[in-house]
């Protein structure tokens, strides 16, 4: 057999599920004693190259409030052609198409290796992918140029039948009509006015199509394409849009001395959301917001246009002195919820040296499964490559993205679902398996995950409901079924079903940065999340192969090269001696070939990480005493500080100038607390 | 003050005097010290006025003097009384005659003026005539011979004249009228004056004159067929008539003499066109005189004389034909005019007149004089003779036809004759011939018919009275009721022609209190210290000194100011004065600008303000020494010290935010909804703009215009266009958020035409295509203006919006309107609400526009109700214009629209203007009418002010005025020129002040009063029921006239209507106002039309309002290139079935074609010989190579050129359905909507006056 570690790894590879406890407590009482809740990290679209989708639809339990999907855990009577639901014990006949079923002729969903299986739904028209660019024009010329180029480039990456749209904004918000010839048309909204979705749709002349769209069914794509002049197939408007982007000018309104440009981000997003809502509700769509600064006017304003008023800091927030914060946050939350409801995700690409208001806007992406990418400038490889990676493709040539996902969790009677944490919103589905105790986004057994990619991971929390006095019989198993319906990037509707059973078993920055980090944290799998919590530090030296070392100041030695991966940053740090050697150019000399290799090793490792990580991490190459070394120094445990440097009496390591306590101090304190009775 | 004033005045005086004196007035000057012989003369004469004096002077002096006196003094008595008491009326008539005489005299003087054409010769002649005139009184003949003696032809003429007179004798009535017209006026007047006062006593002399005349007639007759014809008749009449009324004779005699002179003078050249007209005009007066006189006939006879010679001779009979070819048609009208006489005739002696009638027909003009409706009675006796005459006359006409040619020699008069004949012959004959029906209905026809058989007489009477079938009915009714002869009541045409005739010199503005020529007269102006009447016209040039007087008289004290009026090419525009960095020099206290009324004192170191008397230091850089008269040495080098109108360059102190303004911008906002596209409007506008943009206003034609342009299209959303020069294609930006309008772009919206030409052209090409298939029918309106306003705000400049709009804005947006047209409200107390804006939105929007200097011009293309009352709020408040093209069709309306648009875009306009009227202590500007906005009580704010906009300002006393200093006003307009220059235009005006009511009444201008009244009334409908508004008007008018009657007119019977000479047209014009669509709508007049007209009037100047209320109606049968036919009165009776008439109102242009027009004429005009084949849908006449066609098209062209709006030509065929529309403009008739006829209204007015007096 395999080790327990291997079992866990195997489960995660096959089903994308990793539980906190692989043996579940058999009663509520025991569960509470565990402190750590029964929960799992679930990666709905875990990449499974070896899992071809089946071309039919799942068989559902006929009980109205169950509707669990036939799975390998079900009891099957091949003769009677009946199967028993392992969640509600309802006995269901197989549909006529399963007439030939037998012991030796089982459908895939009954085979144990298909605990995760993907169905392709044939019903309904294929919905095209929709990409709506929302572009800030209050940028420096250089930035705008770079952004325009990236956008133009992205057109070539889109599938020809994908629909694209363009909204630009500055002081005004312009929705560009793409189907026109001759005169370029755009609809303009003033950036200071909050408009309802209905108003926006009326103003865009979308009222009529909205009537049919409101029936709850997405419009037939042809109809929609014909009626919505703002979203057009790439192949049709490629040239137009390329020209349009080429002619895009910086916001023409003059910016007086001492003012910020007026940036109507809030209204722009509102228009984008309203536009999609009116034209393609419940169809996968991606709003891609590119901003070069904070919203400065209208709803969603984060800071006024007076430069003398700085943007809010943590300090202001703590003092409750950030006057736009709550209002703006609320505004973006409302937008995010609307967008999520319609299955549209929102990406934010924020490139500016100062803050851009991600704190207020974070929910846009958090709730809709969109990306947030933060950089210093659109004219950096960080942005350019990250943006390019958004459109990366899998082994089938399909985008590594999916839309409009709905994740449903079904549990056996021993468990109920407390909630989920991740890039999702509740669908308020009150099934019997919903716990009253909420953890994360609770009160529902269904969540909408508008934007998904293979690494999107949610934390699902369960509650053991068995009473202590009526424990589950020995050998009882609890089961959980994850049903993920989504729109594949090739426009197919698909349903992925994962059914698992267990024997009853188990981290300072600017506000924007924090939001950014948290955003990624809640959606990454365990390994990546852990990296974020505790960066990895590798040490390279002549003393042996690279080795992981403690993330501690004591690891910072003169003759080492350190490689730190914090998920968001990759830092290569050359120790003092190494740095001097390098400066002296020894690596250029043939006799010091080994030194050259030593220098190269961390670079190669870093490159490997850079190529797979999304978003692309900030890549920092620094050395002892370099200004960028702060990235490293801020992460390591300050075991040596200016306070205790000499107390330790050792020459090794580098002192950190901080008042923070070291891990040692923390642990000591923790121990004290753990053993004290009053705790 | 005084000094300054004087200085300027002085110069003018000096100048004018010479001119006047030398020409024809020399004698006058002698007699009248007053410099203004022509104008003042009368006035001064007046005061002394005394009619009595007048008499004596008359006899002793040339008629002119007399005339002058009489004219001003004598109220034109209207004998309404005749019916009531002929006898009593008899006496009153006397007064009337005087008036007429005066009138005629004045006219005479005027005519003298005209004659000037021949300058030296004529004048002398004139003077001679006068003498003669005097002579004549004693012995007309001698004088004639003498004068004429030299020129043999002349003699003949005179002979003819005399003959005419004689013939006319019977027609005399007409005669007098004519007489005056001719230079003879003086004589006429004398005659009249004599007649009136001592008429009877003098009567004998007339007789003598008559005799003398007779001879001539015979003479003339012999020479000319006409004469032969007429003379006899005339003679007969005379004989008969003579006995009855010696006065007539006198008149004749007097008139005759005058005539001769004029003729003599004129004969040479002037005769042809002008003369006739002159002759006619005078006639009326004469007729009036006649009216006064029991013996209308005499007047006629006299009238004939005027027609004089030819006219008369032929006059009565053929005169019409001969004298006024154009009148040919008039003949018919004449009949109408005759009607007056006719009526009398009919009443009793119809027979008598028959003879005269024919002549009268021609002379109709003379008839006006007829006031005498009353007189008719006397005529009755005459009838017999007249009958005979009439008979003769007819023949005469025929004969005349031939003679005319020869006669024409007496150019005008002959022409008249010829004219008549044709009319009679041609028109009548034809009419009768072709139209059996006609003859049927009108027994009179036969008369006209070639032969003029005996029966004709009676018929004629009728026909005269009633040229048209309808008329026939009318007369029957009217006559019985009022027995008033339309020809006997004051004729607008007569007054207009008289004024034309007497205006021969350029009008100099140096003399305070001098009334300018009428707006209908062509004249040149010389600025000598007061603003040209083209800039300012006053209701009264002699203001009452006290508020009590003003209140008593009820005469409104107002000025119609047209600050940026376009001047004719021969008058220099106001000079620009630069007082340097410190800005224009102004009075310290009242801030009046430096002007001729500032009096420099203390050797020139200070000046005293003429308005408030405050003394202000003269800045060193402006110092100048004074000469011995106390005026600055550089007085004539500086426009602001010597002229009435000039401009100052303004400094930054006069600018918004103390910053010189950028050049203005024009924004074109085009409705592209379904209707707009379908009607072709969008396409037309876009096509036109491509070329029109090259014609944006500029001050220097060499330089390209500084005006920037922008474009917006809209339906229920707005489309802005980025036409930046760097773009390959224009960009459209749609703004759907109409509830909260904003401008989506800054850079690239307002551009220089030349820089962005390609992009703009591309845009204008694509707009029609883009919306070709639109199905959007809803529109917004408020946001459209807001958009333009916001664009100007964003560009921080003033400008003008050109909005092309089609429908009621029902789309959801600010300023959304609903259809509220409710005919049931008309006539109720709630009617006023229909004129008020439906929502308050536009008023506040207008306020914002004004603050920004955003002027809005609105072009409407409605197919149904659009609520003009509301939509026009912003244009009206911002100094803009509204144009309305109901049921716009590209094919038929394109020309009108495009011409309006072209003119509107190109015309001179100022922006962001503020007008302030300062006055001397004692009066104050209290009320303002026009297209503007006022946020306080003194500053008139005009977002835009163009050359066509006039503002009427009313003044009220707040203290006493002094006769010595008069009343001063200074209108200063601060504005931004089309090149972005900030300027101050200053107009100064001084009028006299009087302590005698008579002076007030002598110096009024009725046209201006009507302008004021109409604006006052049209504004009144906003807050009062229209009925109340009309009553108010009638009351005030009655009070004005009653006050005159009570305080200024000589005692006479209460049954007599006596009108001040200057206001004798007040009733007729007022009636036109009362009958206007606004105050008395017909069933087919939409609320929009009324609202449209209402706002239109608010900014009209006097010339426009005049023709608007009393349309110009010209017979065009005998057009000659370069000369204008004499208009006829706006009454169906004046139309001849055989005639073609052109009618213009400033908004409409009709060509009325009688049903019996000669084929040849039709061929010449329409290119078809058949009446039925005339296409009444054409909007322009075919270009045919014949003099008639050319002249007619030239005439139409010149009409259009005179008006600020292009008039679409409508061809109206008699008896056609469209004739109803046309008839609406025959304002002397009863209107379909219940408006009174002139005659009826006059009676009503008389009744009102009598009530006030009792």
TrEMBL record, chain A:
GO molecular function: GTPase activator activity; zinc ion binding
Alphabetic keyword roster: Cytoplasm, Cytoplasmic vesicle, Endoplasmic reticulum, ER-Golgi transport, Membrane, Metal-binding, Protein transport, Transport, Zinc
Domain (Zinc finger Sec23/Sec24-type) ranges: 58-98
Domain Gelsolin-like: 546-632
Topology of this chain in the membrane: Peripheral membrane protein
Subcellular location field: Cytoplasmic vesicle, COPII-coated vesicle membrane; Endoplasmic reticulum membrane; Cytoplasm, Cytosol
GO cellular component terms given for this protein: COPII vesicle coat; cytosol; endoplasmic reticulum exit site; endoplasmic reticulum membrane
InterPro entries: ADF-H/Gelsolin-like_dom_sf, Beta-sandwich_Sec23_24, Gelsolin-like_dom, Gelsolin-like_dom_sf, Sec23, Sec23/24_helical_dom_sf, Sec23/24_trunk_dom, Sec23_C
Domain Sec23/Sec24 trunk per the UniProt entry, residue ranges: 127-391
Domain Sec23/Sec24 beta-sandwich: 402-504
Zinc recorded as keyword: yes
GO biological process: COPII-coated vesicle cargo loading; intracellular protein transport
Gene3D superfamilies with a match to the protein in the record: beta-sandwich domain of Sec23/24, Sec23/Sec24 helical domain, Severin, von Willebrand factor, type A domain, Zn-finger domain of Sec23/24
Family assignment from sequence similarity: Belongs to the SEC23/SEC24 family. SEC23 subfamily.
Chain's role: Component of the coat protein complex II (COPII) which promotes the formation of transport vesicles from the endoplasmic reticulum (ER). The coat has two main functions, the physical deformation of the endoplasmic reticulum membrane into vesicles and the selection of cargo molecules for their transport to the Golgi complex.
Protein name in UniProt: Protein transport protein SEC23
Biological source species: Astatotilapia calliptera
Gene: SEC23B
TrEMBL record, chain B:
Coiled coil: none
Biological-process GO terms, alphabetical: COPII-coated vesicle cargo loading; intracellular protein transport
Keywords: Cytoplasmic vesicle, Protein transport, Transport
Protein name: SEC24 homolog C, COPII coat complex component
Zinc finger Sec23/Sec24-type domain sequence ranges: 584-622
One MF annotation (Gene Ontology) recorded for this entry: zinc ion binding
UniProt-annotated location(s): Cytoplasm, Cytosol; Cytoplasmic vesicle, COPII-coated vesicle membrane; Endoplasmic reticulum membrane
Pfam families: Gelsolin, Sec23_BS, Sec23_helical, Sec23_trunk, zf-Sec23_Sec24
Gelsolin-like domain: residues covered: 1124-1195
Organism the protein comes from: Astatotilapia calliptera (Eastern happy)
Compositional bias per record (Low complexity), positions renumbered to this chain: 30-46, 96-112, 169-181, 235-256, 266-278, 433-451
């Amino acid at each position: 057999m395999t080790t327990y570690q291997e079992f866990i790894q195997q489960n995660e590879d096959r089903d994308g599920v990793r539980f906190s406890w692989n043996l579940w407590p058999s009663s509520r009482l025991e569960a509470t004693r565990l402190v750590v809740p029964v929960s799992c990290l679930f990666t709905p679209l875990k990449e499974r190259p070896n899992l071809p989708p089946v071309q039919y639809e799942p068989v559902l339990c006929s009980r109205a409030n169950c509707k669990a999907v036939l799975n390998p855990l079900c009891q099957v009577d091949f003769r009677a052609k009946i199967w028993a639901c392992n969640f509600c014990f309802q006995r269901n006949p197989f549909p006529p198409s399963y007439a030939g079923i037998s012991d030796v002729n089982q459908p895939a969903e009954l085979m144990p290796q298909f605990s995760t299986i993907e169905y392709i739904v044939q019903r309904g028209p294929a919905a095209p992918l929709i990409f709506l660019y929302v572009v800030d024009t209050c940028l420096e010329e250089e930035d705008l140029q770079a952004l325009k180029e990236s956008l133009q480039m992205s057109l070539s990456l889109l599938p020809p039948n994908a629909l694209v749209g363009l909204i630009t904004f500055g002081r005004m918000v312009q929705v560009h009509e793409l189907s026109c010839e001759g005169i370029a048309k755009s609809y303009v909204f003033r950036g200071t006015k909050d408009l309802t979705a209905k108003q926006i749709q009326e103003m865009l002349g979308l009222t009529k199509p909205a009537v049919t769209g409101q029936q709850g069914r997405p419009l037939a794509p042809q109809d929609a394409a014909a009626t919505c002049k703002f979203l057009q197939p790439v192949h049709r408007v490629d040239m137009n849009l390329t020209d349009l982007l080429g002619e895009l000018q910086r916001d023409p309104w003059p910016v007086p001395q001492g003012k910020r440009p007026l940036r109507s981000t809030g209204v722009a997003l509102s228009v984008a959301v309203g536009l999609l809502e009116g034209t393609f509700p419940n169809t996968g769509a991606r709003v891609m917001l590119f901003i070069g600064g904070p919203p400065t006017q209208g709803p969603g304003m984060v800071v006024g246009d007076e430069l003398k008023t700085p943007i809010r800091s943590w300090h202001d927030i703590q003092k409750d002195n950030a006057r736009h914060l709550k209002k703006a946050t609320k505004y973006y939350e409302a937008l995010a919820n609307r967008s999520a409801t319609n299955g549209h995700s929102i990406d934010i690409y924020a490139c500016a040296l100062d803050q851009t208001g991600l704190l207020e806007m974070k929910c846009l992406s958090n709730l809709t499964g969109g990306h947030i990418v933060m950089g210093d400038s659109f004219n950096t490889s960080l942005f350019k490559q990250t943006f390019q990676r958004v459109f990366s493709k899998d082994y089938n040539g399909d985008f590594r993205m999916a839309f409009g996902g709905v994740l449903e969790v079904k549990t056996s009677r021993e468990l109920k679902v407390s909630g989920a944490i991740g890039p999702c919103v509740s669908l308020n589905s009150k099934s019997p398996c919903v716990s009253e105790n909420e953890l994360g986004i609770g009160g529902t057994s269904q969540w909408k995950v508008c934007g998904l990619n293979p690494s999107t991971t949610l934390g699902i929390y369960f509650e053991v409901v068995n009473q202590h006095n009526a424990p589950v019989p020995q050998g009882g198993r609890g089961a959980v079924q994850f049903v993920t319906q989504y729109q594949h990037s090739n426009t197919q509707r698909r349903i992925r079903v994962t059914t698992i059973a267990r024997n009853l078993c188990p981290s300072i920055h600017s506000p924007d940065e924090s939001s950014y980090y948290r955003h990624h944290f809640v959606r990454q799998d365990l390994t990546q999340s852990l990296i974020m919590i505790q960066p990895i530090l590798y040490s390279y030296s002549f003393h042996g192969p690279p080795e992981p070392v403690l993330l501690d100041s004591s690891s910072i030695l003169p003759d080492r090269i350190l490689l730190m991966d914090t998920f968001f940053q990759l830092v290569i740090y050359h120790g003092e001696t190494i740095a001097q050697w390098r400066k002296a150019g020894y690596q250029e000399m043939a006799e010091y070939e080994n030194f050259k290799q030593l220098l190269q090793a961390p670079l190669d490792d870093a490159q490997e990480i850079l190529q797979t990580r999304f978003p692309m991490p900030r890549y920092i190459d620094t050395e002892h005493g370099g200004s960028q070394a702060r990235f490293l120094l801020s992460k390591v445990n300050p075991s040596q500080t200016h306070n205790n440097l000499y107390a330790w009496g050792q020459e090794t390591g580098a002192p950190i100038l901080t008042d923070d306590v070291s891990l040692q101090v923390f642990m000591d304190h923790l121990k004290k607390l753990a053993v004290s009775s009053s705790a | 003050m005084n000094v300054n004033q004087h200085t300027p005045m002085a110069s003018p005086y000096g100048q004018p005097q010479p001119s006047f004196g030398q020409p024809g007035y020399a004698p006058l000057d002698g007699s009248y010290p007053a410099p203004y012989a022509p104008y003042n003369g009368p006035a001064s004469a007046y005061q002394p006025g005394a009619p009595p004096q007048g008499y004596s002077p008359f006899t002793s002096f040339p008629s002119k003097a007399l005339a002058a006196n009489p004219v001003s003094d004598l109220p034109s008595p209207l004998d309404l009384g005749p019916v009531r008491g002929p006898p009593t009326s008899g006496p009153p008539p006397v007064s009337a005659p005087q008036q007429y005489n005066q009138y005629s005299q004045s006219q005479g003087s005027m005519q003298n003026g005209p004659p000037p054409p021949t300058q030296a010769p004529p004048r002398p002649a004139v003077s001679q005539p006068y003498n003669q005139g005097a002579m004549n009184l004693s012995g007309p003949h001698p004088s004639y011979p003498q004068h004429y003696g030299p020129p043999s032809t002349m003699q003949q003429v005179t002979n003819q004249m005399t003959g005419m007179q004689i013939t006319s004798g019977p027609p005399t009535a007409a005669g007098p009228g004519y007489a005056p017209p001719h230079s003879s006026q003086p004589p006429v007047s004398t005659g009249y004056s004599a007649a009136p006062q001592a008429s009877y006593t003098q009567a004998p002399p007339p007789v003598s004159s008559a005799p003398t005349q007779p001879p001539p007639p015979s003479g003339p007759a012999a020479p000319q067929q006409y004469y032969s014809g007429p003379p006899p008749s005339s003679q007969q009449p005379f004989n008969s008539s003579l006995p009855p009324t010696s006065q007539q004779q006198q008149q004749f005699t007097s008139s005759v003499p005058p005539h001769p002179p004029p003729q003599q003078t004129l004969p040479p050249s002037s005769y042809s066109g002008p003369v006739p007209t002159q002759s006619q005009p005078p006639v009326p007066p004469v007729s009036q005189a006649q009216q006064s006189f029991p013996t209308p006939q005499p007047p006629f006879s006299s009238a004939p004389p005027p027609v004089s010679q030819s006219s008369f001779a032929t006059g009565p009979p053929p005169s019409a034909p001969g004298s006024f070819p154009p009148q040919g048609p008039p003949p018919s009208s004449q009949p109408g005019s005759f009607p007056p006489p006719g009526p009398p005739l009919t009443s009793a002696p119809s027979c008598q007149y028959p003879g005269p009638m024919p002549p009268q027909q021609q002379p109709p003009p003379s008839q006006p004089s007829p006031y005498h409706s009353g007189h008719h009675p006397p005529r009755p006796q005459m009838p017999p003779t007249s009958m005979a005459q009439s008979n003769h006359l007819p023949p005469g006409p025929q004969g005349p036809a031939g003679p005319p040619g020869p006669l024409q020699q007496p150019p005008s008069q002959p022409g008249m004759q010829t004219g008549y004949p044709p009319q009679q012959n041609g028109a009548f004959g034809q009419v009768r011939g072709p139209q059996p029906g006609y003859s049927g209905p009108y027994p009179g026809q036969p008369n006209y018919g070639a032969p003029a058989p005996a029966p004709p007489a009676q018929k004629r009477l009728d026909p005269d009275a009633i040229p048209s079938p309808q008329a026939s009915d009318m007369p029957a009714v009217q006559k019985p009721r009022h027995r008033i002869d339309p020809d006997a009541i004051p004729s607008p045409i007569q007054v207009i022609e008289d004024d034309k005739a007497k205006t021969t010199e350029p009008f100099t503005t140096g003399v305070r209190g001098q009334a300018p020529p009428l707006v209908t007269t062509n004249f040149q102006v010389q600025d000598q210290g007061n603003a040209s009447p083209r800039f300012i016209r006053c209701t009264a040039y002699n203001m009452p000194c006290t508020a009590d007087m003003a209140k008593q008289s009820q005469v409104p004290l107002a000025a119609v100011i047209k600050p940026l009026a376009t001047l004719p090419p021969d008058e220099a525009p106001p000079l620009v004065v630069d007082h340097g960095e410190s800005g224009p020099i102004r009075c310290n206290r009242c801030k009046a600008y430096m002007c001729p009324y500032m009096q420099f004192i203390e050797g020139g170191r200070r000046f005293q303000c003429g308005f408030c008397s405050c003394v202000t230091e003269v800045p060193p850089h402006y110092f100048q020494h004074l000469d011995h008269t106390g005026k600055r040495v550089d007085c004539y080098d500086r426009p602001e010290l010597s002229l009435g109108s000039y401009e100052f360059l303004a400094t930054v102190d006069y600018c918004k935010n103390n910053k010189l303004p950028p050049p203005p911008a024009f924004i074109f906002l085009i409705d592209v909804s379904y209707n707009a596209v379908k009607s072709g409007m969008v396409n037309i506008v876009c096509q036109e703009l491509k070329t029109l943009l090259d014609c944006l206003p500029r001050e220097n034609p060499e330089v390209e215009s500084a005006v920037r342009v922008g474009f917006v299209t809209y339906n229920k959303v707005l489309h802005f266009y980025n036409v930046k020069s760097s773009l390959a294609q224009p960009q459209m930006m749609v703004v759907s958020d109409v509830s909260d309008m904003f401008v989506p772009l800054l850079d690239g919206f307002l551009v220089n035409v030349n820089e962005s030409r390609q992009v703009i052209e591309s845009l204008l090409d694509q707009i029609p295509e883009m919306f070709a298939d639109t199905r959007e029918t809803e529109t917004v309106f408020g946001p459209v203006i807001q958009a333009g306003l916001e664009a100007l705000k964003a560009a921080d400049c003033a400008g003008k919006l050109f909005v092309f709009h089609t429908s009621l804005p029902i789309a959801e947006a600010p300023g959304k309107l609903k259809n509220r047209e409710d005919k049931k409200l008309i006539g109720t107390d709630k009617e006023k609400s229909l004129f008020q804006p439906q929502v308050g939105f536009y008023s506040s929007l207008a306020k914002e526009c004004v603050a920004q200097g955003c002027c809005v011009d609105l072009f409407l293309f409605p197919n149904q109700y659009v609520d003009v009352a509301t939509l026009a709020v912003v244009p009206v408040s911002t100094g803009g214009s509204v144009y309305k093209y109901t049921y716009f069709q590209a094919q038929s309306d394109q020309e009108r629209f495009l011409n309006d648009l072209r003119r509107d875009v190109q015309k001179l306009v100022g922006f962001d203007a503020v007008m302030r009227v300062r006055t001397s202590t004692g009066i104050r500007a209290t009320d303002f009418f026009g297209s503007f906005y006022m946020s306080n009580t003194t500053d008139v704010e005009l977002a835009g002010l163009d050359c066509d906009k006039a503002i009427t300002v009313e003044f009220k006393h707040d203290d006493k005025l002094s006769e010595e200093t008069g009343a001063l006003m200074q209108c200063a307009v601060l504005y931004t020129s089309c090149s972005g220059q900030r300027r101050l235009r200053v107009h100064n005006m001084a009028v006299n002040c009087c302590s005698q009511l008579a002076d007030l009444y002598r110096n009024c201008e009725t046209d201006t009063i009507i302008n004021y009244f109409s604006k006052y009334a049209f504004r009144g409908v906003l807050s009062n029921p229209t009925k109340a508004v009309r009553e108010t008007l009638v009351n005030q008018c009655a009070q004005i006239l009653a006050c005159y009657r009570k305080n200024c007119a000589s005692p006479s019977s209460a049954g007599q209507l006596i009108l001040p000479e200057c206001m004798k047209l007040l009733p007729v014009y007022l009636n036109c106002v009362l009958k206007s669509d606004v105050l008395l709508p017909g069933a087919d007049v939409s609320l929009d039309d009324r609202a449209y007209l209402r706002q239109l009037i608010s900014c009209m100047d006097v010339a426009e309002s005049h023709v608007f209320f009393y349309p110009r109606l010209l017979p065009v049968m005998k057009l000659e290139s370069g000369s204008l036919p004499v208009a006829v009165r706006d009454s169906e009776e004046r139309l001849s079935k055989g005639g073609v008439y052109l009618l213009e109102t400033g908004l409409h242009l009709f060509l009325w074609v009688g049903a019996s027009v000669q084929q040849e004429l039709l061929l010449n005009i329409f290119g078809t010989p058949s009446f039925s084949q005339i296409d009444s849908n054409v909007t322009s006449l075919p270009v045919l190579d014949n003099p008639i066609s050319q002249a007619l098209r030239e005439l139409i062209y010149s009409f259009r050129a005179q008006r600020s709006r292009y008039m679409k030509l409508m061809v109206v065929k008699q008896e056609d359905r469209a004739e109803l529309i046309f008839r609406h403009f025959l304002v002397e008739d009863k209107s379909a909507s219940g408006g009174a006829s002139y005659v009826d209204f006059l009676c009503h007015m008389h009744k009102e006056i009598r009530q006030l007096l009792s």
